[in-house]
Amino acid sequence: MKRIVILISGRGSNMEAIVRRCVHEQWPARVAAVISNRAQAVGLQFAQEQGIATAVVEHRVHASREAFDQALAEAIDAHAPDLLLLAGFMRILGPPFVRRYEGRMLNIHPSLLPAFPGLHTHRRVLEAGCRLSGATVHFVTSDLDLGPIVMQSMVPVQAGDTEDTLAARVLASEHRIYPLSVSWFVRGLLRIEHGVVQHSEGASQLLVV
After folding, report:
1. Using one digit for the tens of pLDDT, what is the confidence trace for 142-194?
2. Which of 27, 64, 195, 201 would you call most buried, defined as having the most Cβ atoms within 10 angstroms of its Cβ?
3. Which element (helix H / strand E) includes 53?
4. Considering the entire predicted model, what is its pTM?
């Protein structure tokens, strides 16, 4: 059975969606731990209520990013994960950390990558006049938000959308594509060929909302 560790910084709604689907669909996996860089992260309470181990590695108490990354890696490795998930984890991780988990670390980003990497995604989508937005699940590499794409959702931008209304619809799609992508990984259905992620059974890697 695969072991999953999830990193969060806040409410952890994607983490919650993954935990629930893992149990409901009886994946050959379990969420072994949820770790946050913020002690007040709301998602920690949900994890604890599900009987999942939790830990806090505060980034502010470490003198450097490298020291934080090392402390975080030690907390993660205590649970021997087969898969590491970033779910609203708001820290940039250094190249040595990424290399440590490369090929078994996934992230979700609220845009159709490679468009709009980084922060303030929904604001930038609206300012650019885009008619389409969405979310992307991808393998994490040292290039920020540019790892091989596992799955994407397409969410139309509606007339009168604000950052909040667009973000809410994109987030709803995230709750569908992230658990699905994780289930594919733990079932051994993903492979990367020439930098492109393929589903071994040919399942669609696009959700149109």
Report:
1. 988 899 999 999 999 999 999 999 999 999 999 999 999 999 999 999 999 99
2. 27
3. strand 53-56
4. 0.97
